[in-house]
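Please review this one:
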Amino acid sequence: MREGYTMDEVPDHLDHGLQIVFIGFNPSLRSGEVGHHYANPRNNFWRILERSGLTPRLYDASEDGELLRLGMGFTNIVARPTRGAEDITRQEYAEGRQILREKLARYRPAIACFVGKGVYTEFSRRPKADWGFQDGQPPIVDGVREFVAPSSSGLVRMPLLEIVAIYRRLYDYIQEGP
């Protein structure tokens, strides 16, 4: 990256009436370069969605905006693309928590799916979380159910089948209805 160059933020895909909003730490450098969520080819996000049943086919990162029609949106706790979450500052997290809370309150998706336990604990300021719905805690934003899913990063050590099974809980919940 050129010195003094600031990479563009990846635009949110949000709307009223969404079933799920996927929330990441922040965009990868690759996502910042191409302007789409989960664009790093080593990231398993799109494969996880397809294998869990959440999408009817395998989507490409360049199609992220099309998922609005399926009732799914995207945002991050921090908008600035970085090499890794360790590059996010405490100040960015503090600002990001407030901005994310405002987005969730404005758009009120049925489910806020945090893509990684760290994303959820950073947002909620709770020290730990289990996989799945966080029903043991009051929601941060009234009326928005919180779901914690594993990170889709290719660096995650959990087997892909286990990750898909956790995301499948979202699919099952949507199919059954609240």
